[in-house]
Amino acid sequence: MHRLLHTLLYLLMISAAIPAIHAKDYVVVIDPGHGGKDAGALGARTNEKTINLKVARKLQKMLNDGMDDVKVVMTRDDDRFIPLQRRADIANSKHADIFISIHANSISKKSPMHKRINGAAVYTLGLDKSDTNLSVAMRENEVMKMEDDYTSTYQGFDPSSTESYIAFEMMQHKNMDQSIALAEAVQNQLVRHAGRKNNGVRQAPFWVLVRTGMPAILVELDFICNPAMETFMSSDAGSTKLAQAIYNGVERYRTSSSSRATTKANPRPHPASKARPEPDEVEPSDSPAVKNVDEKSDNNQGIVYKIQFLTAPKAIRKGDSRFKKLSPVDSYKDGGMIKYTYGAYRSMAEANKELKKVKKKFPDAFVIKTRNGKRVK
User: For 146-180, what is each residue's pLDDT tens digit?
Assistant: First the structure.
């Protein structure tokens, strides 16, 4: 009997230890931009690669200390050169849950704003090729030219040629919604906690974001060409505030994502009163009429299921080739993005049946719930 109790105790100890072994299952890949022979943007006293690594190391420690289930992977933890593609490969091979690339911004010395410009911005992969966003992406992508035979590695992509970015027009990114949510959470904290000027959440075709298969953001902490901002970013107090801001953003993103997942898994009954729309969601004026479904009916509390298949920063004209002849198409605005949907169905089963067909053209399509033309999250 005594031996049996010992055996049971031993088994209980082993079983209790098993979750601990697998507890670190939320993988965060931190990518300190540049490194080694690539100094990045230059300040008056330091350089971008040094600031990036300093903030990244502090963020790594904060995540390890503050989140028990997080495993942090650094693309570099010292002053070494890591090719752009390799950075993305590390994140993909580690099956990362999120990817955070850390950078410091700069503009040309010829600009009259060279020493006065300031502000933080967080980028996600996107199709918006405005002059400002594209120039930032081009500057960051230029590092690939430091690699041997980069044209073969990057399949003929020329980071300094506008034509090379045309291919991004047709790009789909299955994690775009999550990337934007992460970017918004981090940007909010860079402004509120680190006191940075709000330059907003933006989109640009950064190579490291193109090649990662998870929610991914690129953070531009501030402008190193501005002496005051350089001093802040390179100081212990400033780099700590910046790292803490990113940490806070990750924490809020995870909490928000967890809440959404719980709501989907255990949906609560919808109140009888009309749901209040999100402030940044609007009904597009050119929305086609919904066929065969009465959104005002009491069927399933007025829920209508639609298939979301495309997200873009700006409205796309009717008949555009990106729709791949899918019709009728509807859209709504969410988080500064235009999101396109197809169909309207009374049940999830009906929507999922049609989803199989849509996925042949748009592999990343998924079903959403709407009420009165607004998405129910």
Answer: 777 766 666 666 766 766 665 555 454 667 888 98
Q: How far apart are CA 105 and CA 255, in angstroms?
A: 29
Specify whether the backbone of 122 is left (phi greater than 0), alpha (psi in -120 to 50) or beta: beta
With tokens 């949906």, the residue in question is 267
Q: What is the dihedral of CA 303, 282, 337, 120, to 10 degrees?
A: -120
Task: Retrieve residue 157's tokens.
Answer: 């992509």
Indicate the Cα dihedral angle 142, 148, 153, 157, nearest 10°.
Answer: 40
Burial class of residue 201 (count of CB atoms within 10 Å of its CB; 0-12, 13-18, 19+):
buried
Q: How far apart are CA 360 and CA 348, in angstroms?
A: 19
- CA atoms lying within 13 Å on the CB side of residue 330: 22
> By CB neighbour count within 10 A (0-12 exposed, 13-18 middle, 19+ buried), where does 68 fall?
exposed
pLDDT by residue (tens digit) across 71-91?
999 999 999 999 988 999 999
Mean pLDDT of 296-310: 71
> Tokens for 306?
């639609």
| 3 state SS for the chain | CHHHHHHHHHHHHHHHHHHHHCCCCEEEEEEECCECCECCCECCCCEHHHHHHHHHHHHHHHHHHHCCCEEEEECCCCCCCCCHHHHHHHHHHCCCCEEEEEEEECCCCCCCCCCCCCCEEEEEECCCCCHHHHHHHHHHHHHHHHCCCHHHHCCCCCCCCHHHHHHHHHCCCCCHHHHHHHHHHHHHHHHHCCCCCEEEEEEECCHHHHCCCCCEEEEEEEECCCHHHHHHHHCHHHHHHHHHHHHHHHHHHHHHHHHHHHHHHCCCCCCCCCCCCCCCCCCCCCCCCCCCCCCCCCHHHHEEEEEEEEEECCCCCCCCHHHCCCCCEEEEEECCEEEEEEEEECCHHHHHHHHHHHCCCCCCCEEEEEECCEEEC
pLDDT at 256: 83
Of 5-14, 243-252, 275-284, 320-329, least confident by mean pLDDT is: 275-284
